[in-house]
Each structure stands twice: as C-alpha cells, then as structure tokens.
Amino acid sequence: MKVQLLQTLRWWPCLIGLLSIVPPPPVSAASAASAPAQPVVEAEDEVYRFDPPNNGSGPLWCSGSTCLVRSGDAVLASGVETLKKVQPLNNVRWTLWKRETSGWELQLADPTGRTREPSPLAVLGDGRLLLSANPTLTAPDKRNGPARPEILQFNVSHPKEPCKTLRPEWDGSPAFTEHSYRTFAADGPGRAAILFQNVGYTHAEWSLFSSDGHTCAHGRLVWPWGAEYDKPQPIRVCYPTAMLKGRAVHFCGVSDIIEPYAKWRDCKFKITNQHWDYDFRRLFYTWSDDVATGKFHDWVEIASRDKTCGWIKPCDLWLDEAGTVHLLWAERSLDARLRKEFFPDAKLTYALCYARVRRGKVVSRQAIVEGGEELSGEMCQWGRFQVAPGGRLFVVGYVNGRDAKGKALDENRVWEISRDGSVGRTMRIPLKYPLTCYFTATVRGGSAPSTTLDLLGTTAAASNVLRYARVRLW
Fold first, then answer.
1. Beta-carbon count within 10 A of 428 CB
2. Residue 450 region, left (φ>0) first, then alpha (ψ -120 to 50), else beta?
C-alpha cells in the first residue's frame, strides 16, 4: 500500500504540469450562452526574455495587432530578439514560439533579416499561420532606410517546417521604412488577411490576401485632415486596431503628429529641450463595406483630448453579428506639465473607455474604470476585448494606482458587456504575475471566440520578460 502511494505521489507533479498545458474540454453552447463568469487561472509561464533594443520599439509596440494566436489546442507567439553588435534602428529579428507539453519552445528565428519592430501574427481557419515581417533593405552600418513588407506563411501543426513568403501588392512603389506603424488582421473563418502599413504622414497602403494566399485587392487609406491646426495638415493615424470580416474592414487609431499648436510646442521645448513631441490625443475611426472597392467612409472622431493636451491610446475593436462596432481605448485628460499655464482649472483624470458605434454614429459611451483628481485612485490604461461563443463580450483590463483604503493596486480585471452595452460587475483575475500590457488571442487575429482567455505580456516588475497566462472565464 505504501509503495503504491509513493508511486502515485511521484507522478503527481507531472500530472499537474500536464494539466497546465492541456486546455479544458469544450464548453457546451448552452453553457457558453448563459453561464455566469468567474475567471479561473489555469497556467502562468515565462515565454522568453529580451534585451532592450533601444530603437524606439519593443515586443509590445504593435499593440493594435497581436503576437499571440490560438488554433484549436495550439498556442503560438511571435517575439523579438535583440541582435548583439548591431546598431539601431534595425537591430532585432523575429522569433516564433509554441507552447508544448514541456512549456514554451522556440520554433524558429529569422535566419537572415533585420528589422525594428515586432512581427504580428494571424491564424486562418485551415491551420495556416501568418507572420507579418518588415525586413530592412539597408546595410548593417546604416541607421535607417527602406524596408520590404512581407507575409510569412507557416503550418500551425509544424511551424518548424520551411515557410512560404507572400509578397503584398501595392499601388506603385511606396516608400516603406522600418517605422511601419502597421496593423495586421485576419478573418479566420473566411481565410483572408489584410495588412495596413503607413507611408510618411499622408496615408497607409493596404493589401488584402484572399483564401488562396494571393493579393486580391490593394489601395490607400488617406488620413483625415486637420484644418483647425495652426498649420492645416494631414492627421497621421497610428497604433490602429483593425478588423476584417468578409470584405468589410473597420479601422480605428490615434492621431500621431508633431505637436500642432505652437504655444504648446514652445512650452514643451522649454521642458524637454526637444523640437518634437507627438500628440496622441484624437481617436479616429473609419470603415469600408467592401474594401475591394477601395472606398472608405469619411473619418469619424470618436474621442478627443485636444483641448487640454491630453492622451489617448487605442486598445481594441470588435464587430458583432448585428453590425455594431465596439471600441475600447484608454485616455488621460491633460498634460500635467502644461496645466498651470494653459488650463489651471482642469482636473487630471484617467479612464478606460468603451463605446458602441453603428454606421459611424456613436450610440453609447461610458468609462469602465475612471480615476484621478476628485475621483477614485484607480487607473486603468490598457484593456482588450475577449469574445466568447454566442457573441458574449468581455473586457480585460489592467488596474493600478490605489484602492479606496489607499492600498497599492496591481491586478487584472474582467467585466462582461451586456447586449444593451451596460458593463457588468468587476471580477478580479487572480494572476500571480499581473500583466500591465498584453496581447490576446483575438478574433481580429483569426483566433476563434473562446471561453479561454490567452494573454501574452509584461509585468510591472519585469518589463524585459514576456509572460503567458491562460484563464478560463467560467
């Protein structure tokens, strides 16, 4: 009896490790539609570590896209590796990781290319894995210069096998550089993908890939016009979130131009001694009913902190079956450095904001978490959507600051969004290592709706370590 017990105990750690790899059985349709949410942490892993590239980018720089996908039981992530003795800006290469029964294992690393930014992923319903790469065309001793966008196609089940290179088609010969500001999205069931990549301060080029892996349409998305600025100019839109569904495309990003108001620009120069400072404070949205036509609707300004020199960061976007667009963003009310001189009566606040949009009209808007002066001590400056089967929608956010008792906060939370747009109760995700900024296995990257929440990100304590967490929503 003792011998049997000892043998059982000896295998127990292996069993626990195996359970952390194998996902739970599928949830029934009835349960997915009605079960009350209660997040349960099933796994937390370290994926990889990296050295800061000091090139203005990092592994979460493409936050509007995703570097994490799920295809059935397979979970894969892309990463960055800083190349030693290579000067910035093009001093990193992409890496590809897969979660095996023994943990995260490196599958491949770019054998020849150099780049500046991380490489977003997408997965298609037939098991194809797509990686957006932007290798530089410059010599190793050149700081910056032209780049060549490409899509690398892998097999989810055998990612170590040689990949296929897909060449996007463009209008003419765009002057792409290492500063791509690109977004990559996929329609998993439709087996199609779209790549947007910025060209200067005027527009983004886009290329649509059909189910056979060939470019079936391409064109330009021209930026909105800033007629109200001291010097009227295009408003470059960056860090976008985009969703592809059939031939429909929805696109939302933030203004990213050098400070357009001379009075604020001069004041900032006195503080930083730099002639440039970017704005990041106007949230713009547009859409195309059929992107193959090349036509997009007029830009809609969803939110703005332009009057008090605030800050906005796009977080996520989702198009539901009824045609409603759900938008998520973080914002700060003002630039505290300028308050005394320009808006002394304004309050400094922080919020994670949510809005629903139909045909370009905002039908509802609210703050999910709001803190700051004369409010709570809570701050939430990052969040993502999680779409569950049956169209249930959740928001996953990171909250820091202080609670009502003055205790420091460092936690991830989840809220369910009801059909009418109301926000449900707050649920804490009991992670041992809360993630401050993260990717999810989003439907915008081709992953299927799921009751399993996959996260890839960094913690407040270790910004050079990429960690993974798997959470069962109920």
1. 12
2. beta
32 or 471: whose pLDDT is higher?
A: 471
Q: Which CATH class is domain 35-472?
A: mainly beta
Q: Using CB atoms within 10 A of its CB, is residue 74 exposed (0-12), middle (13-18) or buried (19+)?
A: middle
What is the rounded CA–CA span in Å between residue 168 and residue 318? 25
Q: How much is the average pLDDT of 179-201?
A: 97
What are the CA-CA distances from residue 168 to residues 185, 228, 290, 351, 466 (Å)? 14, 36, 19, 38, 30
Q: Are strands 248-255 and 282-288 parallel, antiparallel or unpaired?
A: antiparallel
Average pLDDT, the chain: 94
Cβ proximity of 428 and 4 under 8 Å: no
Q: Are strands 103-109 and 164-166 parallel, antiparallel or unpaired?
A: unpaired
pLDDT top residue among 276 and 97: 97
Instruction: Look up tokens 């304590």; give the residue.
Output: 461
**Does residue 56 register a pLDDT over 50?**
yes
Contacts of 91 (CB under 8 A, 6+ apart): 53, 55, 82, 83, 114, 116
